[in-house]
């Protein structure tokens, strides 16, 4: 404001001087000359006033240049205002571009499947993406500025952060022990840290399953191999009678068959896992398919059971014929193996109200205690290990069946009562079933 007052004072002074000089020279000069001097001085005073007004407008605008447009004034002040406004616009554009870049950068980190946490030099959270918030049970807004070790208290993580050796990630249990996290720290800038987190629960579970699977397979193969090695040693070291030799050979043959069956089942599983979903447009006649499985089961039972086939109204199933046949054959083979002589085994095809269908294998066999039902389709899970092995089981049959039915979009349901029998039901979706017209009408 001082500069404006100074200018106004200068203008007033100019007017005063003009008046004074007019009075002094009025007597000395002639009236015309005095008038010229006075006029010049008045013009200077007017110019100073106008100039001050324009500068005032500019200064007013500069107090908050983003609130209004630059003043449109002529002359130097106008040029100045225009130049300043242009500079401000350029700076604003640069700022907007930087902001947009930062926004894109943060949304890229936000989209990362890994958790990202930024810590300042005091290990306080400066930014956290939603995945990291989930991993560490943090609130991205509320917990900003908090010391991370006050919120993530897992001892392994706190020690890792404090030790400062960040070459390898640290693995520890997530909040409430429901997940397993792998966390890696990367220092950057001046004491700042980038914390990357990954949920490895599934990977750990898959690793454990793989280890269990290899251990199970090794065990299953080692047992018959040990038996075979024992028999070979016996045969090579002891003089055996013909009867003994025959017995040993029969037992060796049984063990070999067992290993062959195991390898065949393992290959089937590997094939199922590695092949595409069965086609939905290749149709197979239900009565023919069940008829073949039934005939094989009759041969396997060798007259020890009554086997009944009820193909209902008939129809067609879309998918892989060999897989479907293998699933039904596995269920029938189990029914034969776990049903004492004289028992009854039924194979049924049923239309479901939703347009799908059930393939049911029911038996009057030994049954299964309730607590085993949920785990029955796990690989190598057996209720009675010795019965399974004695009857040539590998412990893989039901897991193969489950795999097949799931690949066809269906599910497996098991109902059983010890001593009374069991029913295994393959539930197929409508998409893969066509019922015969007569069955639909009925
Ligand atoms: P396995 O080769 O041992 O038969 P499966 O995976 O086919 O392997 O079956 C797993 C277990 O389920 C069997 O060991 C057996 O204890 C039980 N099981 C399967 N089917 C029947 C059945 N029809 N009746 C009684 N128990 C059964």
Helices and strands in order, then pairings?
Elements lengths: L1 H27 L2 H32 L12 H36 L4 E5 L5 E4 L1 H7 L11 H4 L3 H9 L6 E4 L6 E9 L3 E8 L1 H37 L4 H33 L8 E3 H16 L4 E5 L4 E4 L2 H17 L6 E8 L5 E7 L21 H6 L6 H11 L3 E7 L3 E8 L4 E3 L1 H5 L1
Parallel strand pairs: 7-9
Antiparallel strand pairs: 1-2, 1-5, 3-4, 4-5, 6-8, 8-13, 9-10, 10-12, 11-12
Helix pairs in contact: 1-2, 7-8, 8-12, 9-10, 10-12
Bound molecules: adenosine-5'-diphosphate.
Any overview of this molecule?
The chain is of the alpha+beta class. It folds into four domains: 88 residues, no CATH class; 88 residues, PAS domain (Beta-Lactamase); 70 residues, Orthogonal Bundle (Helix Hairpins), CATH 1.10.287; 159 residues, Histidine kinase-like ATPase, C-terminal domain (Heat Shock Protein 90, 2-Layer Sandwich). The mean pLDDT is 90. The strands form three sheets. The chain has a five-stranded antiparallel sheet with strand order 2-1-5-4-3, with helices on both faces. Strands 7-9-10-12-11 form a five-stranded mixed sheet, with helices on one face. Helix 8 runs parallel beside helix 12, helix 9 packs parallel to helix 10 and helix 10 runs antiparallel to helix 12. The radius of gyration is 46 Å and the shape is elongated. Strand 1 and strand 2 form a beta hairpin. It binds adenosine-5'-diphosphate (ADP). The site of adenosine-5'-diphosphate has 21 residues, from helix 10 and helix 12. Adenosine-5'-diphosphate (ADP) binds next to helix 10 and helix 12.
């Amino acid at each position: 404001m001082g500069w404006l007052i100074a200018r106004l004072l200068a203008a007033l002074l100019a007017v005063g001087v003009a008046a004074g000089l007019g009075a002094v020279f009025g007597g000395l000069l002639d009236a015309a000359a005095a008038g010229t001097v006075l006029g010049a001085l008045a013009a200077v005073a007017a110019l100073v006033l106008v100039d001050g007004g324009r500068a005032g407008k500019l200064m007013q605008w500069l107090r908050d240049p983003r609130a209004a447009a630059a003043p449109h004034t002529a002359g130097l002040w106008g040029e100045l205002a225009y130049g300043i406004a242009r500079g401000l616009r350029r700076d604003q554009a640069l700022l907007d571009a930087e902001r947009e870049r930062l926004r894109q950068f943060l949304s890229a980190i936000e989209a990362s499947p890994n958790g990202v946490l930024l810590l300042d030099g005091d290990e306080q959270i400066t930014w956290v993406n939603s995945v990291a918030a989930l991993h560490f049970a943090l609130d991205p807004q509320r917990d900003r500025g908090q010391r991370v070790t006050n919120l993530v208290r897992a001892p392994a993580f706190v020690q890792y952060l404090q030790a400062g050796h960040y070459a390898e990630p640290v693995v520890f249990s997530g909040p409430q022990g429901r997940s397993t996290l792998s966390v890696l720290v990367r220092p950057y800038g001046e004491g700042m840290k980038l914390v990357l987190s990954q949920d490895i629960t599934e990977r750990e579970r898959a690793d454990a399953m793989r280890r269990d699977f290899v251990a199970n397979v090794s065990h299953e193969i080692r047992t018959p191999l040990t038996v075979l090695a024992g028999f070979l040693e016996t045969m090579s070291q002891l003089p055996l009678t013909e009867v003994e030799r025959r017995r040993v050979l029969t037992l060796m043959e049984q063990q070999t068959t067992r290993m062959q069956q195991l390898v065949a089942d393992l290959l089937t599983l590997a094939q199922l896992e590695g092949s595409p979903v069965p086609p939905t447009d290749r149709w197979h006649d239900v009565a023919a398919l069940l008829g073949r499985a039934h005939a094989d089961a009759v041969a396997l039972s060798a007259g020890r059971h009554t086997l009944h086939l009820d193909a209902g109204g008939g129809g067609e199933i879309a998918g892989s014929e060999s897989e479907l046949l293998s699933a039904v054959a596995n269920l029938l083979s189990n029914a034969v193996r776990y049903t004492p002589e004289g028992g009854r085994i039924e194979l049924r095809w049923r239309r479901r109200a939703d347009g799908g269908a059930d393939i049911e294998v029911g038996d009057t066999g030994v049954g299964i205690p309730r607590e085993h039902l949920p785990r029955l389709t796990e690989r190598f899970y057996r209720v009675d290990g010795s019965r399974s092995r004695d009857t040539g089981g590998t412990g893989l049959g039901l897991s193969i069946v489950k795999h097949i039915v799931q690949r066809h979009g269906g599910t497996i349901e098991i109902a059983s009562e010890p001593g009374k029998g069991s029913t295994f039901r393959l539930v197929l979706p409508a998409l893969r079933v066509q019922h015969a017209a007569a069955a639909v009408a009925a």
